[in-house]
Design goal:
By secondary structure, the chain is an alpha/beta fold. The protein has one domain: TIM Barrel (Alpha-Beta Barrel). It has twelve helices and nine strands. The strands form two sheets. It has a seven-stranded parallel beta sheet with strand order 1-4-5-6-7-8-9, sandwiched between helices. Strand 8, helix 11 and strand 9 form a beta-alpha-beta unit. Helix 10 runs parallel beside helix 11. The longest helix has 24 residues. The termini are far apart. The N terminus is likely disordered. InterPro entries: Aldolase_TIM, Elp3/MiaA/NifB-like_rSAM, LIAS_N, Lipoyl_synth, rSAM, rSAM_sf. One of its GO terms (molecular function) is metal ion binding. Its cofactor is [4Fe-4S] cluster.
């Protein structure tokens, strides 16, 4: 499973699967996120005070979607699009504090006792408290990273450790993971992993064993698997799709035109699309899900075309969020997308027919996963009951 991190400045995501946590990035709220070597100490102090101000939107603003009233905080004077040699200033809508769930320490101690590595997938995600045993929204969720913390790929947006041959898998991990999750009494869990191209099936059997072990312990828990692309091995995809999971997620990361620029050469848009298509083919009832980072230099037309391709492939759920640079060695943020533009893409997704579209500056790939899935299940159940009652009458 993964490494537990409390840092809040998220950027590059975990290669092709678990997303947007930068283990070595600098926390938001510190001037070092934005300052340059040439900036004077006085300027840095002013910037620090600005970042620590409480005029920005709160968590509830992001949850409710009430982000259009820009007058609620100081007008942003920086550029949104990066000029040559420039490093963009962080806009006010990306300044937020991390709420920690009341069960955070209890879950952390359980993991240590079982010798497991675990992560809230996106430490800067608005629902991190919910991910760690929250209940504010009526659900309790967690994101677990399987197969260690070292990836065999090197995407340009991601700062996860890489190696050609990471440590071998822990054969007890599926059992220990299921045991820990069952003890937490969660409603929803997201299982994700690094890429393991060094393993014949990419770790698909490891994923499947974890899901089946978990379902055996608690058949009511909802399980989402956010998987690698397994080098396009559809047999591996099928193994996980038929393991008993409820949501099959795999992230395309960016628009088609930027794939080679952003992702490891071993990943590509068509390969990722084939993963999502095949999961749906072998298990039509499963929800498929993917995520796109914005702010890497993509155009509006490229975003629209990518969303259309995903929908044509039968993808049910889509999340769109702001890319954040993890370290100076990684891709720079080309543009900070304002909240109003994210709201536009959410509407576009709804109009295209996605079952669920989450789009916002702080949205991450497992954003409010348990809440939206449970809500949709309840809605569907009510509709079926109403329809049945109508037939009887």
């Amino acid at each position: 499973m993964a490494l537990l991190k409390q840092s809040c400045c998220v950027a590059g995501r975990f290669s092709t699967n678990h997303r947007w946590l930068s283990p070595r990035s600098t926390p938001l709220g510190y001037s070092s996120c934005l300052s340059t070597a040439a900036r004077s100490s006085a300027d840095r102090e002013d910037m620090k005070k600005e970042l620590q101000s409480q005029d920005g939107p709160g968590l509830q603003d992001f949850i409710s979607g009430e982000l259009s009233e820009r007058s609620k905080w100081a007008e942003y004077r920086g550029n949104l699009k990066r000029q040559k040699g420039e490093r963009l200033r962080l806009p006010p809508w990306l300044k937020t504090e991390i709420p920690i769930g009341k069960n955070y320490n209890r879950l952390k101690n359980t993991l240590r006792e079982l010798n497991l590595h675990t992560v809230c997938e996106e430490a800067r995600c608005p629902n991190i408290g919910e991910c760690w045993g929250g209940g504010e929204h009526g659900t309790a969720t967690a994101t677990i990273m399987l197969m260690g913390d070292t990836c065999t790929r090197g995407c340009r947006f991601c700062s996860v450790k890489t190696a050609r041959r990471p440590p071998p898998l822990d054969p007890d991990e599926p059992y220990n993971t299921a045991k820990a999750i069952a003890a937490w009494g969660l409603d929803y869990v997201v299982l994700t992993s690094v890429d393991r191209d060094d393993i014949a099936d990419g770790g698909a059997e490891h994923f499947a064993k974890t899901v089946s072990s978990l379902k055996e312990r608690n058949s009511h828990i909802l399980v989402e698997c956010l998987t690698p692309d397994f080098r396009g091995d559809l047999a591996a995809v099928e193994k996980i799709a038929l393991s008993g999971l409820d949501v099959y997620a795999h992230n395309v990361e960016t628009v088609r035109e930027l794939q080679r620029y952003v992702r490891d050469p071993r990943a590509n848009f068509d390969q990722s699309l084939s993963v999502l298509k095949h999961a749906k083919k072998v298990k039509p009832s499963v929800l498929t899900k993917t995520s796109i980072m914005l702010g890497l230099g993509e155009s509006d037309q490229q975003i629209t075309s990518t969303m259309a391709e995903l929908r044509e492939a039968g993808v049910d759920c889509l999340t769109l969020g702001q890319y954040m640079q993890p370290t100076k060695r990684h891709l720079k943020v080309e543009e900070y997308i304002p909240p109003e533009k994210f709201a536009h893409w959410e509407k576009v997704g709804a109009d295209m027919g996605f079952v669920y579209t989450a789009s916002g500056p702080l949205v991450r790939s497992s954003y409010k996963a348990g809440e939206f899935f449970l809500k949709n299940l309840l809605k569907k159940r009510k509709e079926e009951i109403s329809a049945a009652e109508g037939d009887v009458s």
